[in-house]
Specification:
By secondary structure, the chain is α+β, with helices and mostly antiparallel strands. The protein is 28% helix and 27% strand. Strands 2-1-4-5-6-7-8-9 form an eight-stranded antiparallel β-sheet.
Length: 407
């Protein structure tokens, strides 16, 4: 779980810090910064996966050992803040906790990247009160050098040694196995990298969901719903999981869904199907909204649940009378844990069903029309919100543009 993110000079963000909880909702008009915030998360995920700076930003084709990695929207040419000043670097810092009980310690990872050079400019990792490594004082070669030097705080006596790493790739994944680095520090860096990497973007595409799965059974479906039917086949193999999944589908389509299952293709490949009124309805004849909700719901029954899940525009394709259902789905799973959920919405109905306690992790995104700078403000911190909310519904305040106007 990530507890705090700071973003500087990235896309529409000049300098924002966001504190996160279990369930986090981001609202705002189009082009207000919601997707840009999710792009920053994408950068962190690429770092956790050990990709090069260029791969993180511009994408990575499928290979024998990895799937296709979609880079950040716009690629390396469109990631730095575009304003009166044109910075050539951007920075992202993330913080959270590792361990349990009294053994819990804070970690903070910070990185500054040069998209033009495809290089790391600065990087550090702090665990507890100790900076495991920090490039600020050791690196004198400049961003153009192929080598990044860091001070390694080994925790022993004597001057911290300078270690050298390839600048084209963040140090976080390079630390493991590095000469003179203690195994305990490899492990800490690896655990932080795992938190960043174990992030699943759920953006189901109906065209993908209507197709047969290539796999027979999977532990986690793809970002756009690849192998969705294979995931459902595995859910249906467990009576308890099947009953839980079916309950959500019946909430979406009351008194219609008898059961959920998969059909088999010529060589056994699965295809999603619902049974209603004794009739079979395979994925190709189901509506976009039904398929998208079915895929999002299935994501919470995956055998391999991610630590962090992101979903954009959660209400897409869902009828207004069922929009509350998607919020209840996210809320129930965030409360159950251990997956942290970050989602965007344009729906006033979703906001209307928020609990006051959730105002702390609901964020209003706004972009200044003159400076193009985006800000992210907690709903409860919007000036005047607490007083106005006593006499006006949150849905009305959002739909009428009051939230953005108050910032």
């Amino acid at each position: 779980m990530i507890d705090r993110i700071t973003i500087r000079d990235f896309k529409s963000f000049r300098d924002v810090t966001v504190g996160l909880g279990g369930l986090n909702l981001f609202v705002g008009t189009n082009a207000s910064g919601k997707s840009n915030f999710f792009d920053a998360l994408r950068v962190l995920q690429g770092i956790g996966n050990g990709f090069t700076v260029s791969e993180i930003l511009d994408g990575k084709p499928r290979s024998a050992t990895s799937e296709v990695w979609e880079g950040v929207r716009g690629g390396s040419g469109k990631v730095c803040f575009e304003g009166a000043e044109q910075p050539e670097t951007f920075s992202i810092s993330a913080a959270g906790k590792l361990g349990e009980g009294t053994a819990t310690r804070w970690w903070q990872y910070s990185v500054t990247l040069s998209p033009r050079l495809g290089h790391v400019v600065a990087e550090s990792l702090i665990h507890g009160r100790r900076a495991i490594y920090d490039s600020r004082y050791a690196d004198k070669g400049g961003a153009g050098s192929p080598v990044l030097k860091v001070d390694y705080q080994h925790g022993g006596r004597g001057r911290p040694p300078h270690l050298e790493f390839a600048r084209s790739r963040p140090v976080l994944r390079q630390l493991e196995g590095a000469n003179r680095v203690k195994p305990r520090d490899w492990a800490i860096a690896a655990r932080v990298a795992d938190v960043l990497a174990d992030m699943q973007r759920v953006d189901p595409a109906p065209t993908v969901l209507r197709g047969y799965s290539q796999a027979r059974q999977v532990a986690r479906m793809g970002e756009h719903g690849e192998n969705f039917a294979a995931l459902v086949r595995g859910i249906c193999a467990d009576p308890d999981l099947e009953a839980g999944y079916l309950e959500w589908l019946r909430e979406l389509r009351p008194a219609e869904v008898d059961s959920v299952a998969t059909l088999s293709g010529a060589v056994g490949e699965p295809l999603f199907m619902l049974r209603e009124g004794g009739r079979e309805f395979p994925a190709p004849v189901l509506s976009d909204g039904t398929l998208r909700f079915a895929a999002i719901a299935a994501a919470f029954f995956q055998p391999d649940m991610p630590q962090i899940m992101t979903i954009e525009e959660i209400e897409n394709g869902i009828h207004a009378s069922r929009t509350r259902l998607i919020l209840e789905l996210l809320r129930a799973n965030a409360e159950a844990g251990p997956t942290q959920i970050l989602a965007t919405t344009h729906s006033p109905v979703v906001l209307e069903w928020l609990k006051p306690a959730e105002y702390v992790t609901t964020y209003v995104c706004r972009r200044d029309k003159d400076t193009s700078e985006a800000t992210i403000t907690r709903l409860r911190d919007v000036p005047g919100f607490r007083d106005v909310a006593k006499t006006h519904s949150l849905a009305d305040l959002f739909a009428e543009g009051w939230l953005e106007a108050a910032l």
